[in-house]
Amino acid sequence: MSRLFAILVGLILLLVAVAVAVPMLVPMETYKAQIAAAVKEQTGRDLRIDGDIGLSLFPNIAVSIGDVGFSNASWGKEREMASMQEMRAALKLMPLFRGAIEIDSFVLVDPVIHLEVRRDGTPNWQFETARAAAAPATTGSEGGGIGVSEVSLGEISIRNGRASYVNAQTGANYAAEKVNVNLALPGLDQPFVADGSLVWNGDKIDVDLKADRPRAFTEGGETPVALTLSAPKIRATYAGTLKALDGVAFAGDVDLNVSSVRALAAWAGSPMPDGEGFGALALSGKASGGGDTYRFSDAKIGFDGMNATGNLTVNTGGARPNVRGALAVDRIDVNTYLADGGKGAGGGGSGGAGDSEWSNAPIDLSGLKAIDADFDFSTQEILFQQIKIGESALKLKVANGLLNANLSRLNLYQGAGSGTLTVNGASATPQIAANFKLAGLAAEPFLTDAADFKRLQGKTAIDIAVTAAGRSQRDMVSALNGNGSVKFTDGKIKGINLAQLTRSVFSAATSGWQSGGTQDTDFSEMGGSFTITNGVLKNDDLRLLSPLIRVTGAGTVNMPPKTLNYRVEPKLAASLEGQGGQADVKGIEVPILVTGPWSNPRFAPDLASMIQNRENIESTIKSIKEDKGKGLIDSLMGKPPAQQAPAEGASGDEAPAEPATRPRPEDALKQLFGR
User: Fold this and answer.
1) In this structure, what are the phi and psi dihedrals at residue 418, rounded to the nearest 5 degrees?
2) Cα three-residue angle 489-493-497, rounded to 5 degrees
């Protein structure tokens, strides 16, 4: 028995010796030509092996090949499709006897891979030989083959690799350098781990991946996955599941941080059109998707300084990303996407040193072509240039560079309203259309922010529909067209006393808003309708109702040069009725021509028109005589009611006694006309 055992041991040692010695005795150089010929027959490409070939059979089946190159397609830009300085592979021998495959190591040193797609769509990895139909795939139960359940990987690594991808059909061009990857798969029932890094467009990307149940993934099930991707322009983490089903599907928690979306897009090889905005992006929430569609629920989004919560769906299968969702946003700052950041020159008219010029800075709305969107928004604030809109609800659609915003609810400047806004960034010349109905607005802050006009107070109602097109703010104003109406109630014209202005213009023509003095003119109602044609606003029905004064007017406001050409008819009426009073009461009409720049207009009397209205003057003088002229005279003299002292011995409830010397109406008229 011991003799038989010794013989068996001797045979085993002999086999081991043969396994070790045979590779040393077989000249590997003789097989280079045969290997190259076999590759040529199968692929139609040339294989070069300029380095040594090493082979061993014990204790592992190991192969090493040095300085290898595989030729590219005849039309390829690079001479070789793939090359490497060295490849080393080792397969454990003993597990083969029990039907298991255990790869001890697989190492590629300095591999270089060039992938190309021709303009007609042909890839360079499609070989030009007569391609025979592939043999039907066999399952693990057919032919007694070894199933994937018996595969494990040891050291799998790529060291200092390079890879490139060029697609002449789509224009895509990507290149990765310094690719260093390590993989480990002890078994399909143990975690798969991958970590490594590469340099893409000058930035290093670090990747860490762990899949807990590889077997489930290979069998169409799902496995828990943790992934971290870190680069200077992006950091993303994912913790969830991964499933192979008609591609790859996932569901889990995502955390994404991008310092600049615009810089990230350029770095990734898909630069966005020039423009403002698209800066920092932070996104977290539950994500799921597969193929070209990705969904985010319970999402928290920070984008260009704006913060939102809600649900989001992104589809990347079209010509540009398509984003849909419902979001609650703290603020929407439209100025972020305007070329001048919303700081373009506004209107003048504040009584300052002069009117600021309309901006010639280019308006670039091409950023709207970078994405399609369909959103329902609720927001606490909307900023557009200097205009501030409060809590609002809007539906926003962006398609092919055309933005449509339906603002179903607007709260602004203590008022409310609704409207629609269309912004066309697809055409060569930007276009804007707006249609708004607003009521209850506080006039002074609204007009200050909208047009830098600070001389009106009161409640405002506006109905306006306008369109404009142009490459700059100046061009937009020059092409403004539309119509509307405006009404102010229970307010005042600040810094202008119409009675004093009327007296001063008859003394001599004056210039500047200071011509009206420093007092205000209260009114119960003021407004009218207008049309706008190529930046020129025309109004024919201006009306102001105030005690003792009625004002009508007509004229034009030329917005491009910011000039006025207006005829105002203040009527000094013997009536204390304001709002609700008659607009056509008889009185002394004092027509005034208002011309010149907004900030410094010229006021001059229209004497020719006044002479033609003698009947109203005579009628008003008659009414002054009837009520002794007290109310009108005090108004004309600029004397406020508080200065009218009660008669001596009279109580505060009694009417003041007439002055000892009664002013004559003709004296009042003389003072009115500066005589």
Assistant:
1) -150, 165
2) 130
